[in-house]
Backbone:
């Protein structure tokens, strides 16, 4: 029998490839059989909430899912928790005093502020107010987010291991600081397959034109999983998906005719060779043809109402903006895309933090909140998990000179804030706390592995059982760590 | 021993059941009719996969002090007649009881491991115990033994041994091998497998037309002799070597390693014996009289990713680099997953964490930095200069002339003694005039004057002016802060002004973050003699403290420039192109006193040698140690130093970008000289006499005409040499440091948790290190390629086998360990391996052997029955079917169109790529597409940016090359269809192919379609296919005939010129035909 942990191809499981394809239909990249069928009865017990197709689990989840899809708003560069969600009046009171050794506890600093002769505490220059039913502290920089705070599950006590961007963002997006592991979205695609036959299951959206900490293909790459599980980037502009458009001089009619003849060739070859993979080739080409209309269809927001644009902000009319990408994320979610990964760069504020963070918040606050509100209005928030956050936090002391009007903050892996909404997390919750310096976690620490375990749990997946055998080892998103943070679950 | 086929139930039923557990067990253990169970093929995989995680080689995580990978341990007595494993007695074997237990906290494997055993697996283990619980060594760790070639009964005896092994197995299974493939299929298979390119229609015709048996081997020899062979072989090796054109982390800056790639191509084409191929890469630098190629080959160990991200901790990343070398060595050369043992003992294979770091010790001994330079484009050290041949001889001539001038300078010194005796030493006390002098006696606003140039020099972030009690510079003297307006009015200059080394009564106190920045001092290069003199008073013990430098940054610039710093209080003077491997530096043996004023002078003679660096404390030479003595490129930020632009660094005091500044210390009276001050001058300034020899040296430097003129000549020659070497490219290579850097066992594999020092050694579970071999990488290479090593040759033979059959004899070519797949034909693997080694690791010979077999030449067509029985073709009853690699798909289109540029080697090229990808990653880098011939190079030469690899390639499963990877998958996705349909590279190829066909067959569309099919697929279309192509042509012709504008647009895709004299609709319709065929399954699948 086939061990359910192993993902080796299992073509001998009683179905021909053709049968498999007929039965399960074709997801994007649905041709690799190992991912279409799961012959083991051990793998899953709970029923899938719907017509989920393909994936290692074959639609049979480890337990009932709360979330059917994820929209992850990644704030690349590491937003300061002290200017957003982690209110620290003490830093203001003791502005300019040295970070006490008793707080730092000899923890390492980066080479950027590590050689500073002093580490002066820097209080936030921005006001905080209490919002929502529980009077949750939110920065004045995030007025829209403040309004929906009752819908959010805020985790003030996330922590990570890496102190530089590349390892840290790679860790948060793949569960390892070292390149070569699959991204979160790839794991989800690999495990759960797709809900949509005409669009990729894992879509990546980036706000263009932000020169800051770079983004790398590995962040949405499939690592050692088959390449079909890598994220597909949707871009504003002519080719929303790379190579989507017909070449100059090739009309849709001409393309259709070509695909018809291609189908003839493949049908003839399949007959002659008896090779069902040739059949699969037909399906592959048909889906690429459907994508040529489904992708522009989802990108075309002309059918959205003025109310929607008012909600997301007028920026949403400009393709590529964060607001437009949030709106697009909702449209992709509506069409059953399983994992939608947004990136917004520009949070790496080593100096000029007061000026830069205002800009960043202006660019993201309204649309992030609008996305949650919009999903809620449409009844989609219940089964859509929205995540907002970066790869680490920032220091309570100033990097560079602290002046009356300016300061900067260095990388800080010991604690940072993210929020989640919908998809089975507890609304109106603030989980965990940091010390008065926002330097160490005071209670309820959530490690990156725990966050990943929880995310998979919400999708109906046991993080210890979604595994891939590679080089003789069972790899998981959470390596050999991670525990589901029960306190966050609704 | 239980005879095959007999039931175990008899044996079990006969047992006296002594306890309840045994009784229950006996009830559960079912009758299992079995052959003799084989430990290696049946039991070890089970134990390894389900048990070793807690009961395997990893001592730290071992549960219940039980290990099952060692027989003696597994047989451990538990008392009362029980053992964990009791041979021949499953009923009293705890292992058997536990796997059948129905109690959750008793069951093995435990439920929370999410591992389980199936009923048949439990039975298998039981039977194994009943049969005596025999253990065997893991197959891949057993030495290679030449298995006898089986005789296959009725078959003729002249069978290729490969066929004998394969057929013997097929005969056992009762399966008939497939017939020979068609000539068209065969030559296509040969062409792609041996050259990565399709055969031309002419080659196909010639081969199909020649029935002689020699025709086949002639084709094989032609392909093996072609340059394209090495290129094809290189692609797979470069995946393992993680070869790319950029560093890989974060900003992912470009770095040219193409000389290494070209060496790989050359090595394969020259059929360099494979043991040499590995040895050169591992240790070419250590071979006696190492050649340039042997050194370039060692770049293999430097292809790992590197970072320049600001604030990174140098040692953390240096450790990563060394670890990456070890991991790559393991995967690429041994087929082992060594990396599993970095943090703990290996879970499945007999590799301990100590073994891991014993290997680590071979790879950590190069003079490298964990960070490459952000502010310069220095090549991280150690590096090899890649001299263009004509310049190299010129350079040799120059260095010879420099050496002889230096010798002459030495030689004439004695003859100057006579003149020296008549010389009046009084004059020696007039030191040269400084080029800059900051007395720090006056501050106005945030500036202080340079007393020489009268330039106002900037005080950055407010160093504080202090009034100095200069009359009594003792530890207890009080230095008083004065107001920021400047010194008190009655301050006076000390005597001796004009001497160049004087004392005022003001000094600057620094915080560690602030500095003085003097932009008006010229940039000193490595051929310029210069000197620095200052008074300073450190007050705190600091690990590092910056005093004076001309440099952009510390690690962020690879320390480029000169620097005078304190290390643990000890003065350090260095000239650096890239720290640590391209630099000279000396450090004082003793620290400066704290809380006291010291006068420090540093001089440099322009020689690029550590011996040319001297330091003096209070007029006396400081005893120093040489820290580095290998500077061969300039220390400036100019073209002379190999930079693309000219930039000058200001002279800066007390702080440096991201370095540790001079904290709470005072500096006074800084002077800069554009000459090397002599010892006599330095002593003389303080009114003391440095002695007779110092005076003589001073005389030579300042007064002796012949010496002075020789020095001038020397300086000019050195500048010439510097100008020549600056622009010469370098490549990162391996080069041992003279004193091995100790390697520590790192707890959890972490750079900041060093434990015991471990010596260089190989894993204890593998054959011993060869006696007498040096304990370095060369010795390691000898161990790797020795006949005793059971892995190396098997791994490569398996990999080459896979190139021809799509899967290895060991399907997990990336893992030959206990968790890997077992060989389908172990005796064949050993026979091939033994022969491969015996014939001198002859790679081309191995190809010849394989492709000569009938097994290779079988048709890939199979009956439904064979497909059902062996869907993976593990038994090799038919020819292979493989999806072409990304490179082969693109190259194939270019070749068919006649566009392929077959030039071999050189820097990487940038073909078509959708715009905006690099820009969007946020590095601010732009992809500038190449034009002309460079668009049509083989894909091997496509520029590989690790964080944003070319999407048309990764869509077809090419790897990002961030880490060593031993396998590519072959997926099928709609995105691949989009590439083949719409990527300009393929559209252009289709239209260029079409254009040529319209030229050849102006009146015959059917002939065009036929030839296009042959060019792209390698065979003629059958009748049905011909009809489909004809219909397609007619449909497209009609569309384009009605819309000539669209036809013209299509014929403008790509840069290749269109032949406007041809009828556009016909060319466009033929293009559509070519495009159709390029999207046909057979274009990308080799059958």
Residues:
């Amino acid at each position: 029998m086939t061990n359910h942990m192993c993902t080796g191809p299992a073509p001998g499981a009683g179905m021909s490839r053709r049968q498999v394809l007929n039965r399960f239909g074709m997801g994007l990249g649905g041709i690799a059989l190992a991912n279409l069928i799961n012959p083991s009865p051990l793998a899953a017990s709970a029923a899938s909430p719907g017509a989920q197709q393909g994936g290692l689990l074959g639609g049979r989840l480890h337990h009932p899912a709360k979330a059917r899809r994820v929209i992850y708003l990644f704030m690349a560069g590491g937003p300061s928790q002290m200017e957003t969600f982690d209110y620290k009046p003490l830093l203001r009171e003791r502005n300019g005093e040295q970070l006490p050794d008793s707080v730092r506890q000899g923890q390492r600093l980066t080479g950027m502020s590590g050689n500073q002769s002093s580490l002066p505490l820097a209080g936030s220059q921005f006001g905080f107010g209490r919002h929502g039913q529980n009077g949750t502290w939110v920065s004045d920089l995030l007025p829209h987010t403040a309004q929906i705070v009752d819908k959010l599950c805020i985790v003030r006590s996330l922590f990570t291991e890496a102190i530089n961007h590349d390892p840290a963002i790679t860790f948060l997006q793949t569960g390892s600081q070292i390149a070569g592991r699959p991204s979160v979205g790839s794991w989800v695609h690999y495990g759960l397959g797709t809900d949509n036959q005409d669009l990729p299951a894992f879509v990546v959206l980036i706000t263009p034109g932000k020169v800051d900490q770079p983004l790398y293909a590995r962040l949405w790459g499939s690592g050692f999983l088959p390449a079909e599980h890598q994220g597909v980037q949707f871009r504003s502009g002519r080719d929303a998906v790379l190579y989507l458009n017909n070449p100059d001089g090739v009309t849709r009619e001409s393309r259709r005719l070509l695909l018809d003849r291609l189908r003839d060739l493949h049908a003839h070859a399949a007959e002659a060779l008896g090779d069902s993979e040739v059949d699969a080739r037909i399906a592959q080409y048909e889906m690429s043809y459907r994508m040529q209309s489904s992708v522009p269809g989802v990108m075309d927001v002309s059918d959205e109402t003025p109310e929607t644009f008012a909600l997301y902000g007028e920026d949403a009319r400009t393709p590529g903006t964060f607001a437009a990408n949030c709106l697009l994320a909702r449209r992709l979610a509506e069409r059953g895309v399983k994992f939608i990964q947004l990136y917004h760069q520009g949070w790496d504020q080593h100096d000029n933090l007061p000026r830069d963070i205002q800009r960043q918040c202006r660019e993201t606050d309204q649309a992030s909140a609008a996305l949650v509100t919009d999903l809620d209005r449409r009844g989609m928030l219940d089964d859509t998990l929205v995540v907002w956050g970066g790869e680490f936090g920032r220091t309570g002391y100033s990097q560079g000179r602290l002046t009356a009007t300016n300061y900067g903050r260095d990388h800080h892996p010991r604690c940072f804030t993210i929020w989640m909404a919908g998809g089975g997390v507890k609304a109106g919750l603030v989980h965990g706390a940091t010390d008065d310096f926002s330097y160490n976690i005071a209670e309820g620490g959530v490690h990156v592995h725990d966050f990943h375990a929880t995310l998979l749990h919400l999708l109906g997946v046991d993080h210890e059982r979604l595994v891939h055998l590679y080089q003789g080892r069972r790899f998981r998103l959470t390596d050999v760590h991670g525990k589901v943070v029960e306190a966050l679950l609704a | 021993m239980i005879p095959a086929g007999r039931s175990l139930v008899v044996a079990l039923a006969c047992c006296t059941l002594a306890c309840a557990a045994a009784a229950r067990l006996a009830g559960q253990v079912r009758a299992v009719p079995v052959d003799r169970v084989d430990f290696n093929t049946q039991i070890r995989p089970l134990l390894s996969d389900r048990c070793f995680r807690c009961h395997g080689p990893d001592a730290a995580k071992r549960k219940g002090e039980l290990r099952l990978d060692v027989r003696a341990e597994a047989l451990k007595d538990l008392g009362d007649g029980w053992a964990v494993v009791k041979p021949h007695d499953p009923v009293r074997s705890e292992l058997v009881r536990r796997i059948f237990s129905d109690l959750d906290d008793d069951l093995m494997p435990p439920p929370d491991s999410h591992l389980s055993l199936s009923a048949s697996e439990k039975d298998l283990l039981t039977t194994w115990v009943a049969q005596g619980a025999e253990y065997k060594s893991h197959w891949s760790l057993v030495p290679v033994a030449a298995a006898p070639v089986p005789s296959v009964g009725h078959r003729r005896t002249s069978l290729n041994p490969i066929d004998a092994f394969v057929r013997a197995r097929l005969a056992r299974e009762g399966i008939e091998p497939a017939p020979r493939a068609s000539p068209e299929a065969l030559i296509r298979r040969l062409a792609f497998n041996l050259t990565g390119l399709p055969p031309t229609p002419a080659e196909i015709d010639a081969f199909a037309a020649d029935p002689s048996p020699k025709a086949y081997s002639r084709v094989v020899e032609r392909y093996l002799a072609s340059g394209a062979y090495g290129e094809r072989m290189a692609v797979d090796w470069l995946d393992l070597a993680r070869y790319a054109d950029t560093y890989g982390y974060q900003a992912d800056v470009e770095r040219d390693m193409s000389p290494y790639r070209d060496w790989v191509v050359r090595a394969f084409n020259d059929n360099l014996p494979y043991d040499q191929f590995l040895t050169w890469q591992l240790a070419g630098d250590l071979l006696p009289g190492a050649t340039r190629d042997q050194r370039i080959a060692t770049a293999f160990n430097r292809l790992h990713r590197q970072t320049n991200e600001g604030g990174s901790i140098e040692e953390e990343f240096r450790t990563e680099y060394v670890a990456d070398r070890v991991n790559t060595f393991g995967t690429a050369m041994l087929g082992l997953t060594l990396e599993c043992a970095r943090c703990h003992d290996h879970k499945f294979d007999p590799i301990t964490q100590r073994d891991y770091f014993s290997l680590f010790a071979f790879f950590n001994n190069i003079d490298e930095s964990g960070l490459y330079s952000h502010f310069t484009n220095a090549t991280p050290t150690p590096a090899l200069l890649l001299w263009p041949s004509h310049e190299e001889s010129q350079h040799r001539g120059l260095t010879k002339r420099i050496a002889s001038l230096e010798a002459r300078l030495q030689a004439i010194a004695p003859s100057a003694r006579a003149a020296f005796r008549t010389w009046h030493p009084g004059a020696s006390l007039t030191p040269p005039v400084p080029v800059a002098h900051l007395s720090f006696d006056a501050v106005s606003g945030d500036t202080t004057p340079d007393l020489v140039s009268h330039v106002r020099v900037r005080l950055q972030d407010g160093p504080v002016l202090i009034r100095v009690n200069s009359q009594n510079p003792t530890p207890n003297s009080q230095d008083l802060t004065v107001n920021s307006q400047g010194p008190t009015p009655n301050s006076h200059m000390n005597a001796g002004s004009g001497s160049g080394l004087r004392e005022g009564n003001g000094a600057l106190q620094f915080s560690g973050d602030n500095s003085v920045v003097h932009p008006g001092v010229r940039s000193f290069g490595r051929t310029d003699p210069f000197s620095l003199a200052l008074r300073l008073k450190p007050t705190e013990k600091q690990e590092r403290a910056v005093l004076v430098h001309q440099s952009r940054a510390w690690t962020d610039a690879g320390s480029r420039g000169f620097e005078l710093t304190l290390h643990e209080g000890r003065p350090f003077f260095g000239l650096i192109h890239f720290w640590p491997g391209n630099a000279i530096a000396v450090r004082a043996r003793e620290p400066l006193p704290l809380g006291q004023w010291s006068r420090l002078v540093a001089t440099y003679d322009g020689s690029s040698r550590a011996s040319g660096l001297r330091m003096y404390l209070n007029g006396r030479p400081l005893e120093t140690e040489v820290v580095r003595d290998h500077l061969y490129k300039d220390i400036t930020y100019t073209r002379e130093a190999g930079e693309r632009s000219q930039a000058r660094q200001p002279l800066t005091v007390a702080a440096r970008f991201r370095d540790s500044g001079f904290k709470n210390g005072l500096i006074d009276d800084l002077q800069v000289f554009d000459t090397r001050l002599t010892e006599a001058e330095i002593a003389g300034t303080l009114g003391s006499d440095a002695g007779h020899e110092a005076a003589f040296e001073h005389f030579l430097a300042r007064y002796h005409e012949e010496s002075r003129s020789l020095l001038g000549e020397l300086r000019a020659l050195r500048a010439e040499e510097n100008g020549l070497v600056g622009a010469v490219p370098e490549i990162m290579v391996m080069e041992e440091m003279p004193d091995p850097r100790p390697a520590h066992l790192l707890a959890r594999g972490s750079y900041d948790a060093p434990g015991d020092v471990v010596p260089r050694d190989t894993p204890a579970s593998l054959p011993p290190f060869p006696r007498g071999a040096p304990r370095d990488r060369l010795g390691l290479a000898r161990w790797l390629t020795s006949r005793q090593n059971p892995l190396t040759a098997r791994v490569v033979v398996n990999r080459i086998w896979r190139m021809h059959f799509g899967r290895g004899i060991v399907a997990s070519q990336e893992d030959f360990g206990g968790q890997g797949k077992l060989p389908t034909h172990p005796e064949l693997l050993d026979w091939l391996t033994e022969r491969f080694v015996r014939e001198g690791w002859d790679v081309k010979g191995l190809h010849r052997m394989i492709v000569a077999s009938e097994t290779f030449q079988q048709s890939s067509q199979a009956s439904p029955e064979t497909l059902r029985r062996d869907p993976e073709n593990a038994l090799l009853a038919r020819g292979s079917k493989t999806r072409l690699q990304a490179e082969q798909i693109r190259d194939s289109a270019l070749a068919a169109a006649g566009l392929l540029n077959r030039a071999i080697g050189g820097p990487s090229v940038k073909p078509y790529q959708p715009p905006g990808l690099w820009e969007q990653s946020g590095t601010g880098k732009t992809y500038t597409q190449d034009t002309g011939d460079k668009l049509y190079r083989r894909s091997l030469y496509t520029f590989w940016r690790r964080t944003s690899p070319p999407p048309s390639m990764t869509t077809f499963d090419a790897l990002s090359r961030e880490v060593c990877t031993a396998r590519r998958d072959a997926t099928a996705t709609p995105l691949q269809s989009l590439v083949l349909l719409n990527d300009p590279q393929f559209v252009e190829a289709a239209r260029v192919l079409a254009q040529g066909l319209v030229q050849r067959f102006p009146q015959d569309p059917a002939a065009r379609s036929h030839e296009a099919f042959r060019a792209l697929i390698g065979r003629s279309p059958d009748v049905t296919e011909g009809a489909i192509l004809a219909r397609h042509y007619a449909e497209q012709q009609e569309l384009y005939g009605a819309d000539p504008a669209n036809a013209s647009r299509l014929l403008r895709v790509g840069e290749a010129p269109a032949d406007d004299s041809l009828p556009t609709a016909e060319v466009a319709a033929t293009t559509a035909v070519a495009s159709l065929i390029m999207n046909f399954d057979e274009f990308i699948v080799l059958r």
Notes: Confidence is low (pLDDT under 50) at residues 1-52 of chain A.
